[in-house]
Amino acid sequence: MPFFSKPTYSTISPVKKKDIPKDLYTRCPKSGELVYTKELEKNLMVVPKSGFHFPLDAATRIESLIDEGTWKEFDDELESKDLLKFKDTKAYADRLKTYKKKTGLNDAIVCGLGEMGGIPVSLSVMDFRFGGASMGSVVGEKIARAVERAIEESCPVIIVAASGGARMQEGIYSLMQMAKTSAALARLKQAGLPFISVLTNPTTGGVTASFATLGDLILAEPEALICFAGPRVIKEGTNEELPAGFQRTEFLLDRGLIDQIVPRGEMRERLIYFLSVLFLRKEIPSEEEAS
């Protein structure tokens, strides 16, 4: 008979992992922390601790900027056409159908009239979900119409840019929009009306080389990539090591390309302030008055 008997253990049935809903948490690319997605959405897709700015869809951005009940969208029926019958790995016409289904939009920009702090504005907001918010004939046409509408209504223009650049599937039709949007803004300037450009991550290519950097005032979100050609392309072309933060908004602010860096949660109030100065011609308070 053995001196020691085997101890008996109670058996516990394996605990089944609960099915975690998809996208319940979002990982911050900057800090690595997991953020409750609903809280992230309440904070306009900005991570509270790290300050990382995720992309924001056009509808949510408009809601965050415009006075409630004052927004009226225009030209939402305009759609891009596959005039060049472009094909690479997938036909352009098929890509457009996919983008429309994914976003509920007919193209990569939403334009309309509204009020900010009671001040009338012509606002255009690009949506990166639609083909990287590339600028094709419809984007250029809608911006030109938004500017012309501002001239008719005698109000300022605000464009929130986020784009991978010109839409290659439309070829020269896309590149023509650089001249069209720039010419429209020249007419706005002649009319004595202000244009505020808001740059978000990323704003690149033909959009940067045209309307996005023509603002009377250029604001940008923190750490956004703003460039014509990206850092990888420049590094390969020059065979040079690029400085830290190259082409990010902080780097560009130091070199005078942008006027201010404004966190997303402060953007509405800052825009209202600048509209008061540029459009209503209110005097900037002195340091004593501001304090």
From TrEMBL:
Residues 24-291 form the CoA carboxyltransferase N-terminal domain. Its main location: cytoplasm. InterPro entries: AcCoA_carboxyl_beta (IPR034733), Acetyl_CoA_COase_Trfase_b_su (IPR000438), ClpP/crotonase-like_dom_sf (IPR029045), COA_CT_N (IPR011762). Its EC number is 2.1.3.15. It catalyses: N(6)-carboxybiotinyl-L-lysyl-[protein] + acetyl-CoA = N(6)-biotinyl-L-lysyl-[protein] + malonyl-CoA. Acetyl-CoA carboxylase is a heterohexamer composed of biotin carboxyl carrier protein (AccB), biotin carboxylase (AccC) and two subunits each of ACCase subunit alpha (AccA) and ACCase subunit beta (AccD). This is Acetyl-coenzyme A carboxylase carboxyl transferase subunit beta. It comes from Oceanipulchritudo coccoides.
